[in-house]
Amino acid sequence: MISVIFCTHEKNFTRLYQVFRRKTNFKPCKRTKPFTSIKESVMKVLSIDIGGTKVATAIIDNNLQITKRLQFKSRNDHTPEIFEQFFTDILSNYDSNEYDAITIGTAGIINKGIYTCLTKTSIGQLDGLPFIDLFKRISGNKPVIALNDAQAATYAEYCTAQLANMCFVTVSTGVGGGFILNDDILIGEDGRAGHIGHMLIKTPSPVAQIWGNYAKVEDLASGRAIAAATKDWERPLTTAEVFNGQAEGDPRCDAIVKAAAEAITQMIANIVISYDIQEFFLGGSVAYHTNFIDQVQEMLNSMPEQYHAKLHRAAHGQDSVLVGAAQYYFNRGLKGYNS
After folding, report:
1. From CA 41, how far away is CA 59, in angstroms rounded?
2. Alpha helices, DSSP H only, in the chain?
3. CA 63, CA 269: separation in Å to the nearest integer?
4. What distance in Å separates the CA atoms of residue 129 and residue 286, rounded to the nearest whole number?
5. What is the dihedral of CA 150, 317, 157, 56, to 10 degrees?
6. How many CB atoms lie within 10 A of CB 53?
7. Consecutive sets of 10 residues in the chain, 339 residues long: mean pLDDT of each?
8. 314: left (phi over 0), alpha (psi -120 to 50) or beta
9. I need a surface site. Which of 66, 164, 178, 199 has the fewest CB within 10 A?
């Protein structure tokens, strides 16, 4: 057996490792946990996932051990005052000595500590909210970092997959994503990078008759959109019921799911040809429904070869945002984005 030891600064390790693997036939030992920074002592964060359906919180240490995970129903009627009280109440479930910092993945955009939401009904009317300062204040001035929720999930998948170039796609209440390019997460000038669900596509699908010939991917493929496509039926269905209907051979349900899969396929094909990314990780409640990823992969494979990519089921499931936000802090500290 030959042992190989890399001596390099932490931020250069992943890039060096990728080059080494490409130029050799090296097969690494299987990891028992995701890559994370090596710390001399245990650090803990209170990680928060703020989504359109739920808010999840947990204590996560730098060995990625998750404890005291709690979950709350989201509100979509937030004003700044309601939002502050809501999270003051949530933080009261934790003692301040249980964590060293707060890490957040949230729906919407955090730019220079200020919140902006592209989907106004997501978590309330909070545009312009001094997001970072608010969480510092209600936590007793703990260090705080915040990312878009899909960017946080992207970072979690990256730390596990260790691919220099990859894309994470979440298909859930909404559609979002994030990019890893040359071993770094793409944030963008204003923090908007990865809002791929707002990509416009033209579709001939029957679902498009509801929203017009041009639609955002999110308006065709999100869980909210799939259920909304049945709103004029005698009995409107939930997203899960639409997928069950497809499995049982209902042609109307089949058309809705295929329209959603086609929208995701077009979106991925556009990303492949734009960024030369060939590895995609799909997560979210819609993506996890039986055969959805397989349907997208089949549609993608039917396109010209230059649009092909390999699709994977995301590794971290419902905790991807919590874990990714925590890992971002452990690996980058307060030099991270939005701190």
Report:
1. 16
2. 10-23, 80-91, 131-138, 149-161, 208-211, 218-221, 223-228, 239-247, 251-275, 292-301, 320-332
3. 36
4. 30
5. 50
6. 16
7. 48 52 50 44 92 92 95 86 95 97 92 82 75 96 94 95 96 93 91 91 59 80 94 96 97 96 97 97 93 97 98 93 96 69
8. beta
9. 66
Q: Is the dihedral of CA 157, 259, 121, 57 positive or negative?
A: negative
Assign domain 152-313 to its CATH superfamily.
ATPase, nucleotide binding domain (3.30.420.40)
What are the residue boundaries of the structural domains of the chain, listed by start? 42-149+319-332, 152-313
Domain pair 42-149+319-332 / 152-313, same fold: yes
Distance between CA atoms of 309 and 2, rounded to whole angstroms? 33
Query: Structure tokens of 185?
Result: 């997460």
| Helices and strands per DSSP (H, E), number in the chain | 11, 14
Q: Which two tokens stand for residue 213?
A: 């010939």
Give strand pairing partners of 116. Answer: 109
Q: How many other C-beta atoms can be found within 10 angstroms of the C-beta atom of residue 129?
A: 22
User: Exposed e or buried b for every residue in 29-40, given b needs 16+ CB within 10 A?
Assistant: eeeeebbbeeee
Looking at the structure, give the CATH architecture of the domain made up of residues 42-149+319-332.
Answer: 2-Layer Sandwich (3.30)
CB within 8 A of 259, min separation 6: which ones? Answer: 203, 205, 206, 207, 208, 220, 221, 229
Give CA–CA dist 132/271, Å, rounded. Answer: 31
Whole-angstrom distance, CA of residue 268 vs CA of residue 155: 19
